[in-house]
Structures are given as structure tokens and as C-alpha cells.
């Protein structure tokens, strides 16, 4: 690795990100854990007092959120006495506006659009005071720190449930309370996570399709309709994009090739295998069954909070890639409940590179080609020889002086500090380089000292000391 060049770009002061794993912690614990103990600087913390109407216990507070002067969908985490006491969102039908009901007391509101990915939450300290005469309206302006759109990368959560999942799960499997997020509000929830393409996949149900599509269209947002085809024997699949209301019906006797054929007939360009190694519900456990159909396109490498299932799925993916099976790796939340932040919509997520104007069609084609990375937060932009990105095939030229080598250029941006993480370059399943990371932005340039073979693939992954993934790119393939 002597020829490796590593350029730390900046070491701005560590600031807060209210990471999902930290929810439920006290504010003090939260702030200490993320290194946010300095209130000065970018984070204004105005103290605002609210009048309490004499006839009411609770005070109604209107919070208006904007970004770049435009109304912005946002998540509002309400803390009182160091405890998370409420999870609110701006309303999808009145963009950028949230109505909160607060009883008198001291609060900290953490307001965000894309917390942990493109910005830190903005903290507002306020006192709801029964004796005060001040108005009960508040406006905040959010600022993005990082902007993947500028790089042509668009965020999506390719596995997201709504309340339409609940009746279907009760009907098919007798499982209750499986989904509480209102179909229409899911659009604001996904925008509050700073996702660019709206996505819906309910268990064996397409009941939410129409309302979800209408809501996204009213907000002029691209959207993709799916369904989590949920079986007892063959695992779970997300086919997309489905024609609105086109149900791929679950029956206990149907086999994978039948599900896949039905999904393709219903318009699906992509069939995604969900949590492939989750005990009891993973399709990869059926790989030796004669009915196993390998003609899917996308694999959930990272599903919800990182666990062993994700680790072994990525290991399996490396093996499949080495066998020449070019499945696309994605990260998804598999969230069901908007007010429960143990799992967050958009964490992890997938960023897909789209040339030109963003449309659902272009987005799906790019995703199918693997021009994407999965992440729990860090943004990872990789190019090979200045002309190939993940999903592309880099054709190396031969000349009199020998074969063209491979140079990877990696740029990383991260809201939470990168300290303790390593960027690893994996060539065809073998780790060939590793770099310790720190701060919030890094740049790495690396020349492969060896000559790659046709069919080799380069992957960049970010892992911590316990080998938990924070990000994973799709391979850049080598051609001749
Ligand atoms: Zn599932
Ligand atoms: Zn699911």
C-alpha cells in the first residue's frame, strides 16, 4: 500500500447527530455520545415562551420548517427532562408545517430533514410557559451539510411499510399490529429522511398504492410502487415497480418462479430478495431446493439495524459476485412505524446514480445496473480511472507499455464522525487495501499494484472495529 495516497480533507468540529441507536438515551447521554457539547456556532438555541390558554392543559404550537426558503418536510423529536416524549412530522398536506400539543414545561426539539445523512438535527430549546404572552408560532430554517443530489445520487428506502400492512398480516398469518404509518403521511416521513424517490411495500397488500401515488404526485415527487410478497416457505420479495393496484397474490402452494413471473407480468423491472438470511424468512435458505429461482435482480445486503444476517448476506454476495452473478446490493429500513424510532425510515438506505433529470424510470434502470451504494450514514462516491462508477464495467486498454492499471478515487462525506471506521477496498472478494478514517470528509486515491482480470469487481466498504458495515458500494466490474 506504499502507493496509496490519503488526503484528509477537513476536521471540522464534531457536531451532533441523533442516531437511531441513541434514541431513548438521555439528552445528556445523547449529546455526550455524539460529541455535541458546544452550543455555540451553527446551532442557535433560542428560548421561546408560549402562552397557555386558561381553558386548556396543553398548548398548541405551530412549527414551520423551511429549507432554502421553501417549506420542508421534517422530523421533530421532542425531548423533555432528557427523555424522548414525542415524535412528530410536518404534515404531508401542509408541507413544512407541524402542529404540536405541549403541556407547560421545558422542551428541546430536534428538527431535521435527513438526520445522520445530509444534516445534523437543529436543536430548539423552548419553554412552554403558562404565564407568557408570546405567540405560539415558530419558524426554523434548516441547512443541508451534504448534498448527494449534486453528485447525481438520489436516496431511496426500498423496503417501507404503511398501515396497509396490518390487515393483510392479520388475514394471512394472524399477526397483529404490523404497521402504523398512514399511507399518505409516509410521503412526508420519507421526505423528512431526505429521500428523493418515494417507495411503498406492504405485506401482501397493494391497498395503499392509490393514495400513496396520489400524494406523491400532488407533491411532485417520483415514486415507486411495490408489495412485500410475504410467504411462509420462500421468504419475502419486493417486486417493483408494480402497476398501481396490481397484487402479486400470496398462496401457500405457489413457488418462486410463479411469484416472479406474476411480478414481471405486473410490470416489475426488478425483483428484490428481502433479508435473505433472516432465520425463518430468508430466501437464501432455500437455495438447494429445486424450486429456487435465481432470476432475481436485487439483494437486501443491509436491512434495518445491522446484525449477523446482514454480515453473512454480504459474505454471500461476494461469493455470488465471484461466480459472475451480478446481483445489486441495497440497504433498506424495513420500517413499519413512523412514531417508533428504534428503526428509522431511510436507515439504512440506497443512493442511486441517475444521469440527467430524475424520473422513476431512469432511477429504476440505474438501480438495476447497480449504479448504487448502501449506507447507514456515510456518503461514498467511488470512481475508477475517472470514468467508471459502481455498476459500470471499466474496459482497460492494452498498449505497448502493457495493460492500463486501475486507480480508484474515493470520496467520503459523513455527518457522524468517521473516527473508528475503516474504508476497505475489496477486489473479487479479497480485501486488497484498508484506510483508517477520521473527521467528516475523506479523500482516498489508490492504485492497484496488481493487474486485474476480466470479470474482477472492486467494492468499497466502510466497517467498524467489530466489522459492522456502515456503507457498501456495488462492484465496479473489469472488462477487456
Ligand atoms: Zn420481510
Ligand atoms: Zn418488511
Provide the fold topology.
Blueprint: E1 5-10, H1 27-34, E2 48-50, E3 59-67, E4 70-71, E5 75-80, E6 83-89, E7 97-102, E8 105-112, E9 122-128, E10 137-142, E11 153-156, H2 165-173, H3 185-192, E12 198-203, H4 209-218, E13 223-230, E14 236-240, H5 256-265, E15 270-273, E16 298-303, H6 308-322, E17 328-332, E18 349-353, H7 360-368, E19 372-375, E20 379-384, E21 393-395, E22 398-399, E23 402-403, E24 407-413, E25 422-427, E26 430-436, E27 441-447, E28 457-463, E29 469-473, E30 476-479
Parallel strand pairs: 2-9, 3-10, 12-13, 15-16, 16-17, 21-30
Antiparallel strand pairs: 1-27, 3-4, 3-7, 5-6, 5-8, 8-9, 11-18, 13-14, 14-15, 18-19, 19-29, 20-24, 22-23, 24-27, 25-26, 25-28, 28-29, 28-30
Structure commentary:
- Helices cover 14% and strands 34% of the residues.
- With 480 residues, it is an alpha+beta fold.
- Strands 11, 18, 19, 21, 25, 26, 28, 29 and 30 form a 9-stranded mixed sheet that branches. The protein has a 6-stranded mixed sheet with strand order 12-13-14-15-16-17. The chain has a 5-stranded mixed sheet with strand order 2-9-8-5-6, with helices on one face.
Amino acid at each position: 500500500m506504499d502507493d496509496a495516497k490519503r488526503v484528509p480533507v477537513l476536521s471540522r468540529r464534531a457536531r451532533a447527530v441523533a442516531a437511531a441507536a441513541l434514541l431513548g438515551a438521555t439528552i445528556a447521554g445523547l449529546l455526550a455520545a455524539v460529541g455535541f457539547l458546544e452550543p455555540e456556532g451553527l446551532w442557535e438555541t433560542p428560548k421561546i415562551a408560549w402562552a397557555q390558554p386558561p381553558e386548556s392543559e396543553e398548548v398548541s404550537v405551530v412549527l414551520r420548517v423551511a429549507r432554502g426558503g421553501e417549506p420542508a418536510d421534517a422530523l421533530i423529536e421532542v425531548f423533555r427532562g432528557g427523555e424522548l416524549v414525542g415524535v412528530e412530522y410536518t404534515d404531508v398536506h401542509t408541507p413544512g408545517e407541524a402542529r404540536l400539543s405541549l403541556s407547560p414545561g421545558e422542551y428541546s426539539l430536534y428538527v431535521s430533514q435527513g438526520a445522520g445523512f445530509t444534516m445534523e438535527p437543529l436543536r430548539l430549546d423552548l419553554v412552554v410557559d403558562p404565564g407568557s404572552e408570546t405567540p405560539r408560532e415558530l419558524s426554523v430554517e434548516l441547512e443541508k451539510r451534504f448534498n448527494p443530489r449534486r453528485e447525481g445520487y438520489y436516496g431511496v428506502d426500498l423496503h417501507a411499510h404503511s398501515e396497509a400492512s396490518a390487515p393483510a398480516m392479520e388475514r394471512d398469518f394472524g399477526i397483529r399490529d404490523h404497521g402504523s404509518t398512514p399511507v399518505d403521511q409516509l410521503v412526508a416521513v420519507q421526505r423528512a429522511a431526505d429521500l428523493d424517490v418515494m417507495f411503498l411495500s406492504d405485506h401482501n397488500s397493494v391497498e395503499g398504492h392509490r393514495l400513496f401515488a396520489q400524494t406523491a404526485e400532488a407533491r411532485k415527487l417520483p415514486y415507486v410502487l411495490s408489495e412485500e410478497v410475504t410467504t411462509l416457505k420462500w421468504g419475502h420479495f419486493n417486486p417493483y415497480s408494480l402497476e398501481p393496484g396490481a397484487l402479486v397474490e400470496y398462496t401457500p402452494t405457489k413457488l418462486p418462479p410463479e411469484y416472479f413471473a406474476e411480478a414481471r407480468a405486473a410490470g416489475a423491472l426488478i425483483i428484490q430478495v428481502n433479508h435473505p438470511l433472516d432465520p425463518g424468512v430468508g430466501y437464501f435458505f432455500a437455495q438447494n431446493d429445486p424450486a429456487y429461482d435465481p432470476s432475481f435482480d436485487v439483494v437486501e445486503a443491509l436491512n434495518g439495524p445491522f446484525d449477523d444476517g446482514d454480515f453473512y448476506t454480504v459474505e454471500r454476495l461476494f461469493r455470488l459476485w465471484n461466480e459472475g452473478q451480478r446481483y445489486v446490493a441495497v440497504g433498506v429500513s424495513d420500517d413499519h412505524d413512523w412514531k417508533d424510532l428504534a428503526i428509522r425510515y431511510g436507515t439504512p438506505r440506497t443512493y442511486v446514480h441517475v444521469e440527467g433529470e430524475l424520473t422513476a424510470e431512469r432511477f429504476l434502470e440505474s438501480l438495476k445496473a447497480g449504479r448504487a451504494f448502501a449506507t447507514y450514514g456515510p456518503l461514498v462516491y467511488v470512481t475508477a480511472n475517472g470514468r467508471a462508477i459502481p455498476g459500470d464495467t471499466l474496459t482497460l486498454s492494452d498498449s505497448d507499455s502493457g495493460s492500463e492499471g486501475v486507480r480508484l478515487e474515493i470520496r467520503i462525506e459523513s455527518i457522524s464522525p468517521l473516527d473508528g471506521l475503516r474504508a476497505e477496498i475489496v477486489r473479487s472478494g479479497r480485501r486488497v487495501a484498508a484506510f483508517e478514517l477520521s473527521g467528516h470528509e475523506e479523500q482516498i486515491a489508490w492504485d492497484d499494484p496488481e493487474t486485474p482480470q476480466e470479470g474482477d469487481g472492486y467494492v468499497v466498504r466502510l466497517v467498524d472495529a467489530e466489522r459492522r458495515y456502515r456503507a457498501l458500494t456495488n462492484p465496479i466490474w473489469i472488462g477487456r
